[in-house]
Amino acid sequence: MPAKIADRASARERLLAAAGELFYEEGVHSVGIDRVIERAGVAKATLYHAFGSKDELIRAYLQARHAATRERMMRELAARYRTPRERLVGVFEVQGLSFAQPGFRGCAFISASAEARPGSTVEEVADEYRSWVRSLFLDLAREAGATDPERLARQLVLLYDGAGISAWMDRDPTAAAAAGTVAQGLVDAATDPS
Amino acid sequence: MPAKIADRASARERLLAAAGELFYEEGVHSVGIDRVIERAGVAKATLYHAFGSKDELIRAYLQARHAATRERMMRELAARYRTPRERLVGVFEVQGLSFAQPGFRGCAFISASAEARPGSTVEEVADEYRSWVRSLFLDLAREAGATDPERLARQLVLLYDGAGISAWMDRDPTAAAAAGTVAQGLVDAATDPS
DNA sequence: GCCACTCTAGACAGACCGGTCTGGTAAAGT
DNA sequence: ACTTTACCAGACCGGTCTGTCTAGAGTGGC
To answer: How far apart are CA B80 and CA B129, in angstroms?
Structure first.
């Protein structure tokens, strides 16, 4: 009964889904290969055929998470807000949605980076994610006509990260709203012509 | 030559010093007991006699770090600034000092919490640290006569965490200064009678 | 002189790690 | 019908992990 058409295409996907759950819930370091293949219902050799090593599986896990986060953010921002100014603050509202989701365990990239050595695969993918967050704010700040977009973007990144830490470490999903309030003031100050 | 008077008193201290270096540099998870005892120049049995388990060694490491951070912050704040308002912003300047130190690897409590399970020892000690950070800002905000001290303290904690993340993940020691600038605005707005 | 204590050195146990390899099975391509 | 491909199941390897245990050595109090 193995190796059906649907299974063949989904072996990699099931591994990625299993890794996504386990790595995020318990950490890339704490979860062993055996746990991943068990949940995916896949043989060990298949994992190594598909990814080559645990390190590459972690990379794929983080890249998938980056893509999902990015797509969700862009989708929600487009659906909920119209102007760049609204979207700059709206980022924190969308962030607040993920904080409220059951099983929220903080930023996956921060957690994965915790015990990553300089130059590691994790650091690479985390850097890509950090660049995206930064450019998300920077692009919107430019579109909003901020007097100093780099400065505003940097400030908003501080708040974005701070909210993520507080939501996680203090188990406070409302941190995003608090950050959004501060962000609103910063956006107003940076875009008001007065 | 073993078991001299100085050695006896310092066996625990040498273990704590070795753990402090290794755990912070490479993570509590990645560093094994053998590495710690090797650097401390101590037998394995001595470690287990002194701490009972690796988990308790990690607790002692984090508690020592908490105490050192707290004492340094209080000392620098008292030496550099006079008014509570100055100190509220001064926290970020002191934070910036640690960012600039060689070997800075981010907040030890965040890193240690990354793969810690709910209810673990690490979570306990991290909670104590988080409470201290919060009360540091809250006490100063009250002394400064802020209209809403809880609100101001919460906002400053967001910036404090955000700066820590940016300094670490983006390798940007100047994040503290950027956070301090935003903090100044928030403090002004929360304490100006206008 | 002797006991109690603290320490070192290192073997050892039992579990788990990432990763390789073999063998067998079922479906797709020709 | 035959080959190729993709997969599963699981034994296996060498290494590392925490933690325990034995054996012995140096030191202070009595």
So the answer is: 23
Contact A117 B161 (CB under 8 A): no
Q: How many helices (H) and strands (E) does chain A have?
A: 9, 0
- Determine the distance from the C-alpha atom of residue A187 to the mean position of all C-alpha atoms in its chain, rounded to a whole number: 23
* Closest CA relative to residue B73, chosen from B81, B63, B61: B81
Predicted confidence at residue A83, as pLDDT, reads 97
CB atoms within 10 A of CB A32: 11
Compute the distance between CA of residue B54 and CA of residue B76 in angstroms, rounded to an integer.
33
Whether residue B24 is predicted with pLDDT greater than 50 in this model: the reply is yes
In B, which residues are within 8 Å of A151 by CB distance?
178
Cα separations in angstroms, A61 against A21, A35, A41, B76, B89: 10, 15, 17, 42, 39
* pLDDT band at A38; cut points 50, 70, 90: very high
User: Distance (Å, rounded) from C-alpha A180 to C-alpha A178?
Assistant: 5
Nearest Cα of chain B lies from the Cα of A8 at a distance, in angstroms, of 33
Alpha carbon distance A141, A152 (integer Å): 7
What is the rounded average pLDDT of the residues B103-117? 97
CA distances from B33 to A92, B23, B49 (A): 42, 11, 13
The answer to whether B42 CB sits below 7 Å from nucleic acid chain C is yes
Instruction: Tell me the average pLDDT across A78-94.
Output: 98
Of B68, B75, B67, residue with least CA distance to B94: B75
Determine the distance between A44 (CA) and C22 (C1') in angstroms: 13
Cα nearest neighbour of B117 on chain A: A26
The pTM assigned to this predicted structure is 0.94
Q: What's the token pair of residue A8?
A: 């063949």
Query: According to the model, what pLDDT value does residue B192 have?
Result: 76
Contact flag, residue A170 CB and nucleic strand D, below 7 A: no
